[in-house]
Specification:
Elements lengths: L5 H9 L3 H30 L6 H8 L13 H13 L11 H11 L4 H9 L1 H13 L3 H14 L5 H72 L22 E2 L2 E4 L7 H5 L4 E9 L5 E10 L5 H9 L2 E3 L1 E3 L2 E3 L1 E9 L4
Antiparallel strand pairs: 1-6, 2-5, 3-4, 3-8, 6-7
Helix pairs in contact: 2-4, 2-6, 3-7, 4-5, 5-6, 7-8, 7-9, 8-9
């Protein structure tokens, strides 16, 4: 006879076996692990696949420090770093701290990892665009590094050939521009030297011309002075003595004869002005032959040669006029010419 309580027997008959519970627990644990290790990383990578413009990527990459020891990171940590780099648009730069390098490090640790492989394949075009902009900015060393990085991710991609061609063309263009700049600088220096030499030659020619003009002017001035000093005044016809007696009075009369003539000095102002002219003077010759009472009666031009004429005539000496052999005083008129002798 079974003496156990009825409810105890019923509970034991409906209980779940421990093996079933263990299987259920393992299945749940695998599902949770698959979610966190595969599904969630893959969704996060897909969500971060659309990159911002390359300029934003470069700006975001500036000043971001890479992990201390990338080789020591686990696959999950590398995927997390890659996701962070994708979110910050660090696709291929800076070196050692970009999404491509993190994903390739994942593939080194776990070949065939679907998250890393899909991310590299789907973001290759964006990484190529970033590298092309680096080429256009003429950062050739960095561009070469990025091309090599892309080649590790997909070595057979035809885009690499295009990028290498553009890099080579930009290098040649830069070399050509630098050579042209050097040639232009040399040409400018030669032009400046030629211009300076031309200016010096023109200055020397101008100085020589001015010196020649000064010498010519000095020679002409000296010639005019010499000609003026050699000018000889021309006397007018001899005037009749003012006090000569009438012919009916009789007696022999002889005219005063000039025995010492002094040439007038040519005025300096008139010489500089190239002026010429004449002066008519009236003078008295005494019985001793001396000249007195010299006066200007007419001149052309007025008051230019008057003083020179009076000074010169005042120093003339005559042989006195005579009447019947006796010296007498007479009044004469003379014209003095002032010519430069041209």
């Amino acid at each position: 006879m079974d003496n156990r309580p009825p409810f105890i027997d019923r509970r034991q008959r409906g209980a779940v076996s421990p093996v079933t519970l263990a299987v259920i627990g393992i299945v749940v644990a695998l599902a949770v692990a698959a979610w966190f290790l595969i599904v969630k990383p893959y969704r996060d990578a897909r969500a971060a696949e659309t990159p911002a413009p390359v300029a934003v990527q470069k700006a975001a990459a500036t000043g971001v420090a890479p992990p201390a020891n990338v080789d020591a990171l686990s696959v999950d940590q590398l995927l997390a770093e890659a996701r962070t780099a994708m979110n910050e648009q660090r696709l291929v730069a800076p070196a050692g701290n970009n999404a491509f390098e993190f994903y390739m490090k994942v593939l080194q640790k776990q070949p065939g990892n679907p998250v890393a492989a899909d991310a590299l394949r789907e973001t290759f075009s964006y990484g190529s665009a970033a590298t092309e902009q680096t080429i256009n900015q003429r950062d050739f060393n960095e561009a070469q590094r990025e091309i090599d990085l892309l080649a590790k991710a997909d070595p057979e991609n035809y885009t690499l050939t295009i990028l290498r061609s553009k890099l080579d063309a930009q290098r040649k263009t830069l070399d050509r521009e630098q050579q042209q700049a050097v040639d232009a600088q040399k040409a400018q220096q030669v032009a400046q030297q030629n211009a300076a030499a031309t200016q010096r030659q023109q200055a020397e020619q101008a100085a020589a011309a001015i010196e020649a003009q000064r010498a010519q002017a000095a020679r002409e001035q000296a010639a005019r002075v010499a000609q003026a000093q050699q000018a000889v005044p021309v006397a007018a016809p001899v005037a009749r003595p003012a006090a000569a007696p009438a012919a009916s009075e009789g007696g022999a009369i002889s005219d005063a004869v000039l025995i010492r003539q002094v040439n007038p000095r040519y005025p300096t102002a008139a010489m500089r002005a190239n002026q010429e002219g004449w002066v008519d003077v009236e003078l008295t010759v005494g019985p001793d032959g001396r000249v007195a009472n010299v006066n200007v009666v007419d001149a052309q031009p007025k008051h230019i040669f008057d003083r020179s004429a009076i000074d010169a005539v005042s120093r003339w000496e005559y042989k006195a006029a005579t009447r019947n052999g006796e010296p007498m005083t007479v009044t004469l008129r003379r014209r003095l010419q002032f010519n430069l002798g041209r």
